[in-house]
Design goal:
Elements: H1 3-20, H2 41-46, E1 50-52, E2 55-57, E3 72-75, E4 85-88, E5 93-98, E6 102-107, E7 109-110, E8 119-128, H3 136-141, H4 143-146, E9 164-170, E10 173-180, E11 197-198, H5 201-209, E12 215-219, H6 232-235
Parallel strand pairs: 4-12, 10-11
Antiparallel strand pairs: 1-2, 3-6, 4-5, 5-6, 7-11, 8-9, 8-12, 9-10
Length: 244
């Protein structure tokens, strides 16, 4: 075999070996997450800009909307009376009980104070475009942010309480737990550092219009999260026992 042939065959073998080795140095970008499907026109219309007294509530950007996040009538099983508001902060949902095992479901944002109360209470009153004052703890923890608002902020489009607030009391008086709107629609469906239970302004207006004074409120614990979303038979524990 000639020297030239030996060099050619050796080079061919090296190329073949290289072809079988994995290209570990080559990385592919992960596929982009699919964009959520556009919401139906009916859904977009629910969250369009709307006049409210002398203020106009801005539309919710469609980029922040999904069909799952929009308010909707859902199946819901509870022994609580019609008109009860059930807050499930750990699932970031609020249910307004309707007749026939139904509830109007709203998606909520939950601030730190939203986990500070559980149990039963009632709504003695609500306010349109309520005034907001930071709590003593908020002022102590972040004086630079909340100090300028220490005397309170009048109701309006930039007020943290949004378009409506439902005030929650129990036998001990004011719980300082609030269900309210927000000027920050991107916070809906998320956890946040401040606030209680917040809804899109369009949703809190809808909820407030359909909530009577002294309506019952139930705030679920983490162990109770999801209660009411499955039929009663499915909620019952499965009986177990030894062999017969």
């Amino acid at each position: 075999m000639t020297q030239l042939l030996r060099v050619f065959l050796a080079g061919t073998a090296l190329l073949a070996m290289a072809a079988c080795e994995p290209a570990s140095h080559v990385t592919e970008a992960p596929p982009a997450a699919p964009a959520p499907p556009p919401v139906r026109p009916e859904t977009a219309a629910m969250y369009a800009a709307q006049d409210d007294g002398n203020l106009t509530v801005p539309a919710i950007p469609e980029s922040l909307l999904t069909e799952d996040k929009a308010r909707q009538l859902v199946d819901y099983w509870t022994e609580e009376p019609v008109g009860t508001i059930i807050v499930d902060p750990h699932a970031r949902r609020l249910y307004h009980v309707q007749p026939g095992n139904k509830a109007m479901r709203y998606t909520v944002g939950v601030g730190a104070a939203g986990y500070g109360f559980t149990g039963e209470a009632h709504i003695p009153y609500q306010r349109d475009w309520p005034r907001w004052t930071p709590t003593d703890s908020m002022l102590a923890e972040n004086p630079e942010q909340y100090g300028p608002s220490a005397a309170g902020v009048e109701g309006g489009l930039s007020n943290p309480m949004g378009a409506r607030a439902l005030y929650i009391h129990n036998s001990g008086g004011d719980t300082f737990y609030r269900i309210h709107g927000t000027p920050d629609p991107q916070s809906i469906g998320t956890a946040s550092s401040a606030g209680c239970i917040r809804l899109f302004n369009q949703d809190i207006i809808h909820l407030a219009e359909n909530t009577r004074s002294m309506s019952k409120v139930v705030v679920l614990t983490q162990a109770q999260s999801g209660r009411g979303t499955t039929p009663p038979a499915a909620q019952m524990p499965t009986a177990t026992g030894g062999p017969t």
